[in-house]
Structure formats: structure tokens, C-alpha cells
Amino acid sequence: MNIFTILAISVGLVAAEPSEELTVQQITEAVVQEQLDAYNDADLERFVATFSEDMVGVKYPGEILFSGHEGLRKSYGEFFKDGPNHEVFIKNRTVQGNKVIDVELYSKTGKREDIRPGFFVAIYTVENGKIIRMEFVSAD
User: Fold this and answer.
1) Which of 10, 66, 99, 114 has its CA 20 to 30 A from that of 16?
2) CATH code of 98's domain
């Protein structure tokens, strides 16, 4: 059983049949969900492991915020230490091929009643079982 099958089983996308082949959409969603779970758990190394080494983080329409595993560690390491109770809630998710588009609500306390006003749209692109691009579109 490969890592994609294990990820998909862990998020309930497929039954635990080793002979089942996963679709690109199932793999894509499983990787992005694992990334979100690691983010919500403030588990930096598990979070980083869901990304390709040459990943790029972008603020729409193209401002590069960080790149690579070291860029992720630098951008998220202190954030995870300073706010381990944060949580992102998914308001809506669309999976199309190797892309996931999430409408995300953020709470720094992990409680729904503390969700800050507004939302982010995050667009994830997955190749070879890793996130290669994470793009944020904010309301401002």
C-alpha cells in the first residue's frame, strides 16, 4: 500500500482495499487535507512534508511570499509556536484535477465563535503527491 492510499484511507476517501487505484482528484484532496490537518495541529514537519521541495507560496496575483521547505519553516515555524491553538475551518472545497480551491475561515483560538471576519481563498496545485503551489486570494 503506497503513501497516497494510506492518506486517502486516513481521510476516508477510499476503502482499505490495496488493489484500488486512486484518481488524481482523490490523491490531490488527500494531500491537501493532510496539509490542513498538520496546519491545524501546528505540526511543522508534518506540514512541510506535504509540499514539494521546490514549492512556492503566492499571494494573488503573483507576489511570491516564500518558497521551498526552508521558506515554509521560516514562515510557519514561529507562527505555530506562538499560536498553537489556531484553526482553519473549510467553508467550501472544490477539487478539480490536481487543484483544490478552499474557502477558509480562520480562528486564532481554534473556536468557531472566534473566527475573524472575512475569509481567504486558497488554491493548491498538487503534482506527484506533493503540493507545488499554494496561492492565497484575500478580500482586501
Assistant:
1) 99
2) 3.10.450.50
